[in-house]
Design goal:
By secondary structure, the chain is an alpha/beta fold. It has one domain (2-234): Rossmann fold (3-Layer(aba) Sandwich). 46% of the residues lie in helices and 15% in strands. The protein is built from nine helices and six strands. The longest helix has 20 residues, at 215-234.
Length: 235
Amino acid sequence: MWVLVKKMTKRQHCAVLLSIEGIDASGKTTLVDTILKHYEDKGLKVAIFRFPTRDTPIGKLIDQVLRKEVTLPSETLQFLFSANRSEMQEQIHKTCHTHDLVLFDRYLDSAVAYAVAQNMSGDWIRTLDKSCIAPDGCIFLHINPENATFRQKERQKSSANKAELYDKTKFQTLVHKAYCKCYPLDTTASHVQSWATPKIYPHLLVQHINAEESKNSVFLNAIEFLEKLLKEKQS
């Protein structure tokens, strides 16, 4: 189902920008990588930005915090997340003019959801990110937080990855609730605009997808939505 919510500042570019959002282990990275291969096989130039971007100076500090090697106050970490998105803006802008499609593995609305889950202001996060380039559309992957936790634990068994700072079912449940408020199915609900200032944020088209369906079903639903965005960009 498609809904309209508010987003960031206007911009002009050639590429279609799509963010993939959802709680941990909802399948964001898998979907992003599958979309990348699909469109590259069709001859399109596709780029991926993953947030947090952990290989920058700021990203390396974020990585240490998430791995619980360094401790920082929650608000301070949110400043770092925003700075991480900010330091990537020049590269994102350049990529928009050289590629057909730009995919985000988490982006602006992830920041709001994770902050609200920690009793911070969504408006405050939006203000921090007000200079960031906005996506054309967003896919929100719905999954039961308990099922996501199971996926996470199974993934950790088969890899060297250890549980990170936010890898807790109770916290991810709060994040999921925050996402659902950010992307309400009922577009007449009062909270549609509760995190946005209409003068700043034009409408963003959001696709809700059940992430507990098969990988192929999730992929096909995502492609159907993305094809709509691509056609709109060409028209």
